[in-house]
Write a structure and sequence with these properties.
Elements lengths: L2 H11 L4 E4 L6 H8 L5 E4 L3 H15 L3 E5 L3 H15 L4 E7 L15 H5 L5 E5 L5 H13 L5 E7 H4 L20 H13 L3 E5 L1 H5 L3 H11 L3 E3 L14 E4 L7 H8 L2 E5 L19 E5 L13 E4 L2 H12 L9 H15 L12 H11 L5 E4 L3 H9 L8 E2 L10 H11 L5 E6 H6 L3 H7 L5 E6 L4 H11 L12 H7 L3 E4 L3 H12 L5 E6 L3 H10 L7
Parallel strand pairs: 1-2, 1-3, 3-4, 4-6, 5-6, 7-8, 7-10, 8-9, 10-11, 11-12, 13-14, 13-15, 15-16, 16-18, 17-18
């Protein structure tokens, strides 16, 4: 069997469904072999970065890896940003690249570079396939590493001369094993910590979503009444309408939700990664009692030094604690948490009927987005000022229905991510929200969305500058450097790519237009002039928060 055919057979054995990417001369044998596969769908993208973001979103939605593909040299370097984003946000993904002949890797040669070394800082494993018979072992290792906690990206490089060699090897059988459980002694210690606490609170992170532990968390919270604060990446782990939902933490300044953390005598962190919200922002003195539940021991940090760690499957650990706690009586003082939820809910509802003309406030745009998206609808956020508003004002009924990049935080994520979401979940409504800066970074993927007839809507918040940078510079220095730019005629841009196009300047019309756009056949673009004067207003308020109690 030709090595490239063996490579594809191994991917099929692993259950790989999608590969996103751009072919090239040095991966031609692989592409021809992939074209014969009846199990793997190849999605031709307009840029390798878009392909990497698509693979990331597939991994975050399914827990299984997809592939992103580039050729050698610039094809590989174009993948890098999206790979770094997916890896830091714990998305399982396979990064595949062609390479020149193994006979010229040792010398100066056309487009030759050390891609393996380049990808090592942003992957869990990066390697060259040096012999065709190694392919089954390396594919098995790559997929297993990508899926294992904590998941991430792996990179494999296939030289063009090795791709066309023959091999007698066969794909390895896929074997999967259950996640380990925390030890009983640790569970008993955790039980005592919770039972003796007076004001416990939960901070739920990415791992709750990743390990499908939301149902277990909801049962635990319903039994105990302990409030749940989510990071940006854990939205929906508890229903936004649940009285125990304390919404989201993660802004750089103290918000209402932080009052519940300040008042607590025990913080239970679930699947929390320090990149989601640095502990020096919520535990600056390092004096909070912390119970850490996660798949791996905690990162060492002066402000995050847990009193106890439960290492293993989060859902199983929560279920075990729920059973233990159901046998005893306890009475927590959660008045501060109830007040936080009351006041935060009032803030979320304050602009629901806003009728501003000519410019639209972020709070209103997100209220309407939530109103038109069904509970299982998918929202994908790009990176920019809008991300901070989405984090604070958009909340979810179901887990994994709001995808926000929050580790590497790369702009350009939302449009290609929405394409992957639409392909993977054609039965769901998909809405991406981008700033005008982030949207234009991967605007070429509008053609990809049209070609694959993706039913998705992108809402662009137009302020004609890099709004988040302006916001942060103004907060810090009192003014900002030149950050403005011009934009295309959005409606003509939509028409040229075969999209439906809408521009909304009246707040009262936004919900109706969004609803129309999300029910149109094919991709739709909705552009609104955003009122980022609200950024500094929010900054001033967050810098002077008074806790409800």
């Amino acid at each position: 069997m030709k090595a490239s055919d063996l490579f594809v057979k191994c991917l099929e054995e692993e259950g790989i469904e999608y590969i996103f990417g751009v072919p090239g001369e040095e991966n031609a044998d692989f592409i021809m072999s992939l074209n014969q596969s009846g199990k793997i769908r190849f999605i031709l993208t307009r840029h390798e970065q878009g392909a990497a973001f698509m693979a990331e979103v597939y991994g975050r939605l399914t827990g299984h890896p997809a592939g992103c593909l580039g050729t050698l040299g610039p094809g590989a370097t174009n993948l890098l940003t999206g790979v770094g984003d997916g890896n830091m946000d714990r998305a399982p993904m396979l990064v595949l690249a062609g390479q020149g002949s193994s006979q010229r890797l040792h010398k100066e040669s056309h487009q030759i570079m050390d891609a393996v070394s380049m990808f090592r800082p942003v992957t869990k494993w990066s390697e060259t396939i040096r012999h065709p018979d190694n392919i089954p072992e390396m594919i098995r290792k790559a997929v297993r590493l990508a899926r294992s906690e904590k998941p991430g990206a792996v990179f494999l490089e296939l030289c063009e001369d090795i791709a066309c060699m023959d091999s007698d090897a066969s794909p390895l059988t896929v074997k999967r094993y259950p996640r380990p459980m925390p030890e009983e002694e640790s569970l008993n210690q955790a039980f005592e910590m919770i039972r003796q606490a007076k004001r416990p609170v939960i901070i739920a992170g990415n791992g709750v979503i990743r390990m499908d532990a939301s149902d277990s968390l909801r049962r635990f919270s319903n039994l105990t009444g302990i409030g749940v604060i989510s990071t940006f990446m854990a939205k929906g782990c508890i229903d936004m309408d649940d009285d125990n939902c304390l919404y989201t933490i993660g802004l750089g300044r103290k918000d209402l939700v932080a009052c519940a953390v300040d008042a607590s005598d025990l913080i239970i962190t679930l699947g929390y990664d320090l990149v989601e919200y640095h502990p020096h922002l919520w535990n600056p003195e390092g004096n909070h009692a912390i119970l850490h539940l996660d798949s791996l021991p905690a990162e060492v940090d002066h402000c995050y030094h847990p009193d106890l760690e439960l290492i293993g499957d989060i859902g199983h650990a929560l279920d075990a604690l729920t059973r233990k706690l159901s046998t005893v009586s306890f009475q927590f003082d959660l008045k501060q948490q109830h007040a936080v939820r009351r006041d935060m809910t009032a803030e979320l509802e304050a602009y629901r009927d806003d009728d501003t003309v000519g410019i639209i406030r972020p709070q209103k745009a997100l209220w309407d987005a939530r109103a038109v998206l069904p509970a299982d609808g998918l929202l994908l956020s790009d990176v920019g000022a809008h991300k901070m508003w989405i984090a604070r004002h958009f909340h979810c009924h179901e887990p994994n229905t709001c995808l926000i990049p929050n580790g590497f935080c790369s702009m350009g994520f939302a449009l290609p991510g929405a394409i992957a979401a639409s392909l993977l979940r054609p039965d769901r409504k998909v809405l991406a929200i981008s700033g005008d800066g982030g949207f234009m970074m991967n605007v070429q993927e509008m053609e990809t969305a049209r070609r694959y007839h993706c039913n998705l809507t992108v809402m662009v918040w137009e302020d004609k500058e890099y709004g988040l940078i302006a916001w942060k510079q103004t907060d810090h220095f009192g003014s900002h450097t030149p950050l403005s730019f011009d934009n295309p005629d959005w409606l003509k841009l939509a028409e040229s790519f075969g999209w439906q196009g809408h521009k909304v300047e009246n707040s009262r019309e936004l919900e109706t237009v969004l609803s129309i756009a999300m029910n149109e056949d094919g991709p739709s673009l909705v552009v609104i002039p955003i009122d980022y004067r609200e950024n500094q207003i929010l900054s001033s308020r967050l810098g002077d928060i008074t806790c409800p109690i």
